[in-house]
Design goal:
By secondary structure, this protein is α+β, with helices and mostly antiparallel strands. The chain has 4 helices and 15 strands.
Length: 209
């Protein structure tokens, strides 16, 4: 496969196997409140290739669907090398989430006296309940855990083989070796390697050059 096709294939795989499996909070628009007055919604995170376009940029190139940059995962090529008849590429997954704290509807209450069933807290008090908390990092890392499980379980992503002899690395956003406080946005990354046989002919992609 070509480099571009490989990136697109991995992005589609991540969208199906990692993004579609979770539902995360969508941040408010500029003119919406972020405290107890913000009745958030949960959405399926978007998956982008190489960079994360903001909503204005997406409108500029007439995207079929405008996707918010949070929550999202973007797939980025970090480096690559040619060894014999193989391409080896280092790929980065970057996870971005948003979480300000606990809203009323985040809390589950017993739905029966025996405590075996639970339901969302939905009283009038719940609508005005909000506690600022720094637990939003759990959203990013639970999501990253899912991705790690998928990468460990898979042998190939499309035509690209996951290089099991190379370690899968992961970590938080850092600046000068220090973890960055980006509340209410939370980040995590995973880096892994894939390899594939180099196409000996350029047919099918020459018209793209």
């Amino acid at each position: 496969m070509s480099i571009v096709k490989t990136i697109d294939t991995i992005t589609r795989w991540a969208e199906k196997e990692i993004c579609a499996k979770v539902s995360l909070k969508k941040p408010p628009s500029i003119d919406e409140p972020t405290d107890e007055l913000y009745q958030y919604e949960r959405i399926t995170p978007a998956c982008f290739a190489m960079y994360v376009p903001n909503e204005t940029q997406q409108e500029g190139f007439h995207a079929p669907e405008i996707k918010p940059p949070f929550p999202s995962l973007f797939v980025q090529l970090q480096s690559g090398e040619v060894k014999g008849k193989e391409n080896k590429m280092e790929v980065l997954f970057w996870f971005s989430t948003w979480e300000t704290g606990t809203h009323g509807k985040d809390i589950l209450k017993p739905a029966s006296k025996n405590g075996k069933t639970w339901e969302e807290w939905s009283t009038e008090d719940a609508k005005t309940f909000f506690e600022t908390q720094y637990g939003g990092w759990r959203d990013a890392w639970n999501w990253a855990d899912l991705a790690l499980h998928k990468l460990r379980s898979a042998a190939h992503i499309g035509g690209a083989e996951i290089v099991k002899s190379d370690p899968i690395k992961f970590g938080p956003m850092k600046e000068k070796e220090d973890t960055v406080d980006t509340y209410p946005f939370w980040f995590a990354w995973i880096r892994f390697s894939v390899r594939e046989t180099i196409a000996t002919r350029m047919e099918g992609i020459e018209h793209l050059l």
